[in-house]
Design goal:
The protein has 463 residues and is mainly alpha-helical.
């Protein structure tokens, strides 16, 4: 097996070479990454558990939750994108050493994200009927009834999760990922516990899930605000700062957040269109997509954590003026993310049947689920990192408009159009829609890598 001290020395030298520099070292990056990884693992794992629990209410309930969640992601992504703008600004001020501006950026992020979430929630509640009819009108009546309940309840919870996301984003920006992890765990563990009580214990189905999500998100928001004002020692935000209008800070946050929010609207709007394709294929197709999405999401846990970590890492590098390290660390994260998909594939694919049994799917769709998952697993290894890690790094440097434009165009020109051709016109079904998604990753990844190896992404200044 070899001398452990020699193995550690080799690992240490590799980590020093690829993950250490003047801005930060590999130990600091690991300290950033591990809490985010645990957070992502818990969130995804809890989503799997929640999907499995709602499965006990029947295929119609699973289909309704999956349909509405595609719309929820569209709506949530808008203010979560603005929260990401807050993370970038906070990280750059942290790298620059300006503590006062760190505090002001945090307050501005919480205020703007909360106000935006309230506006989106009101729109969702008032227009829930037309939205569901327009997007999912071909769904069965039972599915639509469940969807109506879940959409209204989800919209009510938006301000709660907006506060949590804004506070956690600011904490990640200064490297306080442990605190961000604890807040996320409180909210998500409470969600699962309440789902177990309301769905499995009281047999309340979709209504029970709706109650759970509201109690959990507002409970998490209360904890986030308490931590921000009473316990935090890095951000130093005072209550009155949340109500002070600082337009210069709002502009900086929106400079990153608004293009990203626009991107997310178009990106997730495209995903809703593909969801509409799938709804037209029938309830079984919706279930196949829901289960594959849950399992594919589990494979993306480490890579998603790296994507969030690179925002803080590159943001601090840019804030301190260390461009070479921003490039070096991005390359290292790209390789690491691709390696993570190899590892996750080797873990999840052999456990396919035990995992699939959690969802209790009809026997007729098990083979289709396997083939969709296998093809997507192989595609993720070379394509996901260049399609998602790279734009996170570009965005952290302030190159928000370009990344957003590319993401929007690639989504609509490839995932939506090609998804319709393969899935509907050629009759490949859900598999065709997923193959189109993999093709879109390849296109955007090539464009982002070309941008990364140029100099234009480094010509933006936020602070």
């Amino acid at each position: 097996m070899g001398d452990p001290s020699i193995r550690w020395s080799r690992a240490h030298n590799l980590l020093e070479k690829y993950f250490s520099g003047a801005t930060m070292n590999y130990r600091q990056m690991i300290a950033l990454f591990i809490p985010i990884l645990i957070d992502q693992a818990f969130v995804m794992g809890l989503n799997l558990i929640n999907t499995a629990m709602i499965s006990s209410a029947g295929v119609a309930a699973v289909s309704a939750v999956n349909m509405v969640d595609s719309l929820n992601i569209f709506l949530l992504s808008v203010f979560i994108a603005v929260a990401t703008g807050g993370t970038v600004v906070v990280a750059q001020y942290k790298g620059n050493g300006n503590e006062l501006k760190v505090s002001q950026a945090t307050a501005g992020a919480v205020s703007s994200v909360s106000a935006l979430a309230l506006a989106i929630a009101l729109i969702g509640i008032v227009f829930h009927g037309p939205l569901l009819s327009l997007l999912f009108g071909s769904a069965e009546a039972e599915v639509m009834n469940h969807a109506r309940t879940y959409l209204i309840g989800s919209c009510i919870s938006f301000v709660g999760i907006a506060i949590v996301e804004a506070v956690c984003g600011a904490l990640r920006g200064v490297g306080s990922t442990r605190a961000s992890l604890m807040l996320s765990l409180i909210m998500n563990l409470l969600y699962v516990l309440l789902n177990f009580v309301f769905i499995n214990g009281l047999d309340m189905g979709v209504l029970g899930m709706t109650l759970s999500v509201n109690i959990a998100r507002y409970g998490g928001a209360a904890c986030a605000l308490y931590y921000l004002f009473k316990m935090d020692v890095n951000l130093k935000v005072r209550v009155r700062e949340l109500f002070e209008v600082k337009w210069e800070m709002f502009k900086k946050i929106l400079f990153i957040g608004f293009p990203f929010a626009t991107e997310q609207m178009f990106f997730n709007g495209g995903k809703i269109l593909t969801q509409i394709f799938i709804v037209g294929m029938g309830t079984y197709a919706i279930a196949v997509n829901a289960i594959c999405s849950a399992l594919a999401g589990a494979m993306q846990i480490p890579a998603n954590a790296l994507s969030l970590t690179i925002i803080t890492v590159v943001g601090m590098c840019i804030g301190s003026g260390n461009i070479d390290e921003a490039r070096k660390f991005t390359k290292s994260f790209l390789v690491l993310a691709s390696m993570s998909f190899v590892l996750m594939g080797l873990i999840i694919l052999p456990l396919f049947h035990p995992l699939i049994s959690l969802f209790d799917p009809p026997a007729e769709i098990v083979d289709e689920i396997f083939w969709v998952l296998l093809i997507n697993t192989l595609a993720q290894i070379p394509l996901w990192a260049i399609g998602f890690i790279t734009p996170s790094a570009l965005r952290a440097a302030g190159d928000a408009k370009f990344t957003s434009m590319v993401s929007m165009l690639s989504m609509w020109l490839f995932r939506v159009v090609l998804g319709y051709v393969l899935g509907v016109t050629l009759g490949w079904g859900v598999l065709g829609v997923w193959i189109a998604m993999d093709c879109e990753w390849a296109v955007r990844g090539v464009i982002f890598m070309k941008r990364f190896y140029g100099k234009k992404w480094l010509q933006h200044r936020i602070i």
